[in-house]
Amino acid sequence: MLTRHSRLRNLAIGAAPVVALLAVACFAPLPFAVAQPGPTANVLGNDEGKPVITISGAPTRPTTGQLRMTTIVATGPDQDVGISDVVDGWFRTDRAVMPRDSVYPGGGSEKEISAHNQAQMKQSQDAASVAALGYLGLSPDKVKVELHLADVGGPSAGLLFTLGIIDKLNGNGSGGDLTGGRTIAGTGTISDSGDVGAVGGVALKTQAAARDGATVFLVPKAECSDAESELPKGLRLVPVTTLKGAVSALQALQKGDPVPSC
């Protein structure tokens, strides 16, 4: 039978490994990435002194309003994330803690991931040009589109690039701006045929949009619930599944007609 003194001593000895494990957990890197709202860019404007959208072979029109593509920024694949970062992220609405493999599914070094993201951006830009010209019935052999946006990778700006091309060439189809003079933000991939795809991180992107003055956010319909989870006050969600639907929604918004909602 243990005396009280012996029990305390054994308790202290027994607790030592637990304390050691907790200490290791506090300082050891964890397989997570922490993301937060990133910069936005007006695709109707300039980036680094150069127009984001340059079109040749067809007349373009001046535009008002803004079409802002949105981003998130995340800790790098080689950056350590500790338990304090994870706990902090869980309790903040402007942070998201995600498994590192979901942010960087292909693995690889930071340089390799950057190259992959740039390749996805190029594919997105090519698809945006094809989708926009196809929507307007213009030949890609006659009309050339050049897209420039530095330091941004991935495919999620596809929808906004496409809408920007349409606005510069055709506006709302009735002589006005597709934006109606508003600051419109959004996210979504685009296919050559005009289908809009999900991208992830929309709850953080809505915060970036509101921070930079947007009042309307175009969101892939499949991600409505994620977008609503931390929706900033004053930001209206408009779900879309196709380019045609996105253009129709923006036209209806200007006319005061019913607009889809999440």
From TrEMBL:
Pfam families, sorted: Lon_C
UniProt keyword list: Signal
UniProt KW Signal keyword: yes
Lon proteolytic domain location: 153-236
Secretion signal span: 1-35
InterPro entries listed in its UniProt record: Lon_proteolytic, Ribosomal_Su5_D2-typ_SF, Ribsml_uS5_D2-typ_fold_subgr
Name of the protein described by the UniProt record: Lon proteolytic domain-containing protein
Gene source species: Streptomyces xanthochromogenes
